[in-house]
Sequence to fold (198 residues):
Amino acid sequence: MLHYEYLETIKKYGRENKIPILLDDSLEYISNILREVKPRRILEVGTAIGYSALCFSQYLAENGRIDTIEIESLRVEQALENIEKVGATDRIRVLEGDALDILPYLTEEYDVVFIDAAKGKYNEFFEHALRLGKKGGYIIADNVLYKGMVMSDYNKHKQRTAVNKLRSFIDMVLENKNLESQLVDIGDGLMICKIVTK
Ligand code: SAM
Fold:
């Protein structure tokens, strides 16, 4: 028995505790893609408290599974509790550690790869996503416009490195001829890439 009614409580907890979980607009946009794809396998980089993985798990095909990677052990604990509460333990596998250490060991193909972790590492995460993503599948990256800073002249010294890295990430993705990519200005900016050739 699945208890998706807990999602509202998990979202409320995330918002109240300033945990950067997926925004409603972005979730709606991604959900429309997932509804169409009906994925068997989803890979997520950046679990936090499991909110997006739990939302996405509603659109999995029968016997589908999500692998999601999280570096902070407290968040892993909270994610596991939430997944248990919803009753989705057989649908979501949480992998604890730095995604850059874990990704090289993954060999399965994924219908959808969702990148939602350290902004300065998107280029590296994306290299793995290209390797692991199925032809015809999607790679989706969140926060690529980083509160509007990526497309404006203004960025504080503190964020300059991440902003510059996101700019080079966007250029790299849009130049990749194996992908049909779209930069969508909703939420904190979504990069949606369809893998057309491999
Ligand atoms: N996807 C989640 C959601 O919408 O519910 C939100 C993820 S939050 C934006 C980013 C998460 O990525 C944080 O919990 C952070 O600890 C984790 N993270 C950051 N760098 C990471 C890395 N190198 N490997 C794995 N997780 C990382």
